[in-house]
Write a structure and sequence with these properties.
- The chain is mainly α.
- It has a single domain, classed as Ferritin, core subunit, four-helix bundle (Ferritin), CATH 1.20.1260.
- Helix 1 runs antiparallel to helix 2, helix 2 packs antiparallel against helix 7 and helix 5 runs antiparallel to helix 9.
- The protein starts with 37 loop residues before the first helix and ends with a helix.
């Protein structure tokens, strides 16, 4: 299992997908006590954005034509811009980005390799779904950062990721190939499970013997419900069943 923030591996269960039409939380849940330290957050988020850039760069290299390469390169540039924004925050606090990102290299590289897919369309779907879900997650987790940095990081990560070209290419391919659509729907369902396991491991594992365990889980569950709902909307937008 992927482990972040230097914790011993925990046996966390993957959050379950809610049924379509299930009631969604209407109030934002306070998860400030579940956020990691600032430098851990920045190092993890910065390396995650660098991984998104690398995945998009691979998609650029294997794109079918120059027009698609140009569009994907713009999306890759947006991910790289977010990465640089985060390492600027690390340096602003007097730390070295490479040092802060180093603890997450092995686990996140393994995760990216696992979710790279076996063809160009699976890679493209991974970039779109994994990138979107992790951005959503880090934005949500930034609520627990100090007020002098949390809102700034949330704004940075919430900037347009330039994924219109990914959506267009995927929609076109799915409309023209029913078998590919079925394949990508299955791939998308696998991606959300793997990505949510990574996100869950970034929060403290609950000890059932601890009185606070129930309280922590009650705050975590609505957060993942929000993430799953956003993932479902992305899948629906592509014409895929989540």
């Amino acid at each position: 299992m992927v482990t972040w923030f230097g914790r011993r591996p925990q046996r966390n269960e993957a959050p379950r997908l809610s049924a379509r039409g299930a009631p969604q939380p209407t109030e934002k849940v306070d998860i400030s006590s579940l956020a990691p330290g600032v430098q851990h957050f920045l190092g993890q988020a910065a390396y995650s954005e660098l991984g998104e850039f690398e995945s998009l760069a691979r998609a650029v290299a294997t794109a079918p034509n120059l027009a698609v390469k140009e569009g994907l390169s713009a999306a890759a540039g947006r991910a790289l811009s977010k990465h640089h924004g985060l390492i600027t925050e690390i340096r602003r606090r007097g730390h070295e980005p490479a040092v802060e990102m180093a603890p997450f290299v092995v686990s996140l590289d393994a995760f990216r390799a696992k979710t790279a897919g076996v063809n160009w369309h699976e890679l493209l779907l991974s970039c779109y779904l994994v990138g979107g879900l992790l951005d959503d997650f880090f934005i949500r987790l930034s609520d627990g950062l100090p007020r002098d940095i949390g809102p700034r990081v949330a704004q940075l990560l919430g900037e347009d990721s330039g994924t219109d070209v990914l959506v267009h290419e995927l929609q076109t391919a799915i409309e023209n190939d029913q078998a590919l659509g079925s394949q990508l729907a299955m791939w998308g369902r696998r991606l959300v499970g793997d990505t949510l396991l990574v996100a869950r491991s970034a929060m403290p594992a609950t000890d059932p013997t601890n009185d606070r365990a129930g309280s922590n889980e009650s705050r975590i569950e609505p957060v993942f419900t929000e993430l799953i709902a956003a993932h479902t909307r992305r899948m629906d937008g592509l014409g895929l069943t989540a």
